[in-house]
Amino acid sequence: MQTSPPRSSSGRRDRKKQQTKDALIAAALRLVDERGLERVTVEEISAVVDVSPRTFFNYFTGKDEALIGDPLVDAEEFRARLAALPAEIPVIGALLLALAPAVAQIQADRELWLIRLRVIEQNPGLLPALMARGAVAEREFVAAVAERAGLTPQDAYPQVVAAATGAAFRVAMIRWAAGDGVPPLSDCVHEAFGVLATGLADPTNEEV
After folding, report:
1. Is the peptide bond before 101 cis (omega within 30 degrees of 0)?
2. How far, in Å, CA of 33 to CA of 50, rounded?
3. Which region, left, alpha or beta, applies to residue 177 given φ > 0 means left and ψ of -120 to 50 means alpha?
4. CA distances in angstroms from 19 to 9, 22, 53, 54, 101, listed in the order given
5. Tens digit of pLDDT for each residue in 158-189?
6. d(CA 128, CA 118)
7. Counted domains in the chain
8. CATH number of residue 56's parent domain
9. Of 36, 67, 98, at which residue does a domain stop?
10. Taking Cα atoms as reference points, which of 70, 75, 60, 51 lies closest to residue 109?
11. pTM to 2 decimal places
């Protein structure tokens, strides 16, 4: 009878796989940023990491998927964090808190994220895959907001909240990239979500 390997051994293998995947993502981004999408092959990406193209395809269906990378947010972890927050916190503030770990991770990986955003901007052909990823993320947001509000994903409220916060997050990322990572992404996200928290009230011009 076969027995399961020790958890520590399984954990090491999982970490090794993630390290290989991360290295392939980084290699793909840097090569495409330097040469352009059409001038980079899977073989060249694999060679940088010292793995075979077959190994590359164990992780990705092609270059596009490697360039887009892993989802920003783990859906289960996000829903758990959101559900654990006190009910009295307004939804925009709660979403901001639930997204904080993802924002911190993007900031920690600042160099690669700035390259990724530049590569996406310069290669419109990546947009269909990016939009498909975004649609999945938005459905997950809808489900999380609906659960917190005691509604169904078919109700308008969670759908509008998910669409609005998704747009605010994209604006924050664009502004962050435009400033080459300055100010920190957390500041850009807080500013964008703050606009939503006002109910999109008209801005006021204070007299000096």
Report:
1. no
2. 20
3. alpha
4. 15, 5, 16, 17, 20
5. 999 999 999 999 999 999 999 999 999 999 99
6. 16
7. 2
8. 1.10.10.60
9. 67
10. 70
11. 0.86
